[in-house]
Design a protein that fits this description.
2 domains
Length: 230
């Protein structure tokens, strides 16, 4: 069977197709070649949206814990009013930061939203009873929520590859700002509470001494880690 000759339009179409094919192949190659960078950039943008509200929530919980402890040992009415006012402002900031954290996780991420909801419910329970607790009871109730949020923060940092950055300085910055610094603040807060309680009671129980020594060692380890790469 003899094939008919191609028309002028068909020849032009064939030439255009042959000209486009290298561009398509080149685009596919470039996308494949640079896809890890695209993926990394997308992860960074998602992390920028999700991680700051978690960090803020932890920070305000730590401030609230310190105010609760300070309030228990304050007798001056004027100072007490000031502390109460600051505590109310801090509680509003905690509520707002939790809302921001919720909004950054769409309904499709039901497991993570459920975890955040559990942490928020823990906070609501603590807020309702913390004034009825003793200073130390209130102080040690806060870390239960804070530690859970720190662990959640760590898993999110790992998910978005912040601790696997090829650049040493960026990787160290992520580890220090998202892991070591919050843990250091938490450790220093506990040391402050134990020290203040010892001054108030004029003695330090053996359990508190052991915690004090353990946290002091942790602080030294964190200090060495932060100073190491630089």
């Amino acid at each position: 069977m003899k094939l008919r000759p191609l028309t002028l339009k068909e020849n032009l179409f064939l030439l255009q197709l042959l000209a486009i094919i290298p561009w398509i192949l080149g685009s596919v190659f470039l996308f494949w070649q640079y896809y890890p960078e695209i993926k990394s950039m997308r992860y960074r943008l998602e992390a920028k949206e999700k991680i700051p509200p978690l960090f803020e929530t932890i920070k305000f919980l730590q401030i609230h814990r310190g105010l609760s402890y300070l309030r228990a040992f304050t007798s001056d009415p004027q100072e007490l009013n000031q502390i109460n006012s600051t505590m109310q402002e801090t509680e509003a900031k905690i509520e707002n930061s939790f809302k921001k954290a919720f909004s950054s996780y769409p309904p499709s991420t039901s497991k993570k939203r459920k975890l955040l909801l559990n942490y928020y419910n823990d906070w609501q329970k603590l807020k309702a009873i913390h004034l009825k607790l003793s200073p130390l009871e209130s102080f040690y109730q806060h870390p239960e929520i804070i530690i859970k949020l720190l662990q959640f923060l760590k898993t999110q940092g790992e998910k978005y590859g912040l601790f696997a950055e090829p650049d040493l300085y960026l990787r160290t910055l992520a580890q220090v700002s998202l892991l070591e610094l919050p843990n250091l603040i938490e450790a220093l807060g506990k040391l402050r509470a134990i020290g203040s309680a010892a001054v108030e009671r004029n003695f330090m129980p053996l359990q508190d001494k052991n915690i004090f020594l353990e946290i002091s060692k942790l602080c030294r380890d964190i200090k060495r880690f932060c100073a190491g790469p630089f």
